[in-house]
Amino acid sequence: MSDFARHPAGVAGAILLTIIALAVVFGPLVAPYDPQAFHTTVRLQGPSADHWLGTDQFGRDLLSRLLFGARSTIAFGVGATMISVIAGSLIGVTAGVVGGWIDSVIMRGLDGMLAVPDLLFVLLIVTMLGGGTGEAMLAVSIAFTPGMARISRSSVLSIRTREYVLAAVARGESQRYIILSEVIPNAIGPIIVEGTIRVSFAIMIGATLGFLGMGAQPPSTEWGLMVSEARQFMYRSPWVVAVPGLAIAVAAMGFNLFGDALRDAFDPRRSR
Amino acid sequence: MSLGYLTRRLFSVLLVLVIVSFAVFAITMILPGNAAVMILGEYATEDQLLALAEVLGLNRPWYIQYFEWAGNILQADWGMSLRLSLPVGEVVGDAFWNSASLAVTALVTVIIIAIPLGILAALYRGSKVDLGIGLFAYVGTAMPEFVTATLLLVFLAGSAGGYLPAGGFIAPNESFPGFVSHVILPAGTLGLILMAHIARQVRSEMSDVLASDYIRAARLKGLRERTVIRRHALPNSLAPAVAVISLDIGYLLGGIIVVEEIFAWPGLGRLLIYALENRDLPVIQAITLLLAAVYALSNLFSDLAIAALDPRVRY
Description:
heterodimer; A: mainly alpha; MetI-like fold; 10 helices; 0% strand; B: mainly alpha; 12 helices; globular
């Protein structure tokens, strides 16, 4: 892990994630205004002493909206990814361990699902379930599950033939012991790395759904929805779309950098 | 590469499409409200709905409906759009070519810019050039299309800039300069995220190659640096680049949905959003199948290209 500290991308990612985590935990407590309060005399203003990040079309304080929105935006990404990691590893580990025709059937099914671009898949499922935050989150996790399943399967397959697993088999350990104590702890690295990087995609897809009107609904402070609502005023006041847009980018970048650094830390061969 | 491998791969593309068609059909069967509701509207009486469902054959078991639908598609009959009262083949066909013109423009631009950027970053590792390209790559991959599009619009099409049209489409054969001015912003939006990703991957592949034993051997036997890079490093890092690009085509196909909606580009993405909002099932089914087919085929082509580029890959 000392490598990690020397990894500039890892440090940058950790700093960004810390800022985001502080906003998620303490944001609503330190927000200077009520995120839904209209201040009609100061609509579409740039940054000022009263409103550090300016105000939107109703005069709502952008900093407060951003701080409140951190929870829904980040929770969406992390939640959707966690569901897909759990479902995906269950499917992937099962396929990898059981093998045979069950494995083939599962993998062909996953191939079919992977052939549909992520966003298209998510849009289809959201339309099927009906729009809304919970539905959008479920849709993203369903769309991410095949990819996670594939990665956990291949990581299980590569471990199954390692010497320490063969040694456990030779010792006559039970199948259950081998899977729980030998295979899963060693297979979990790539899954965590992939999951961390996926969070950034999940945040971006969640914001895109909010933007398209199929995810979070007004007056939510979800960041994608904030961009969408401010868009009709973007020429008059670029500030109002830029603030939540850049917040999404910062969050996605934090998870991306952190995930990349984790991958390098787990895999000593890729030292750069 | 053997003929057997080619047949196997073509067969697996077909298999994937059959699975996708099952999934699409299942999803659209579960969608709330069947075709009868969509045709008659929500104020139709129960009797009218039942009568129309009978005529359309919606009461039959799902597998019969599936095979009829799949059979019609195999005969190039995609059905009628429920909202536009036009054959689906016609509507989707026009949109397909419009989308293709956008996607191909974006992809070609990205490849021309991103691969040299990645190579440059790998050659000058640790320098300011590398840092700059790395920063661009990280920021680029973290911006969703709708954010990039909005920012580009504000700065290049707004009152401040006003150089480029904010949306719309002109066919290339109608007015080529018109097409170019309209395609710059959407293609740029699509390109940014792909460019960042491809440049980063090419940098990492090229760095691996440059650190390999055969490059060391080439240098040790006294070859000039230019020859080492041109004859030994470049060819070996191109095959992985093709693999990355083919993966990114899936991302591109998702990206066009948002980008076309924002820039009012009359392609598959915009049509899909319209069809989803209006529950136009035959159009949704056709677009999903088409995009999956394009993705599967582009993966096949990239595998073939990799085999051609890299003599170590034998199928």
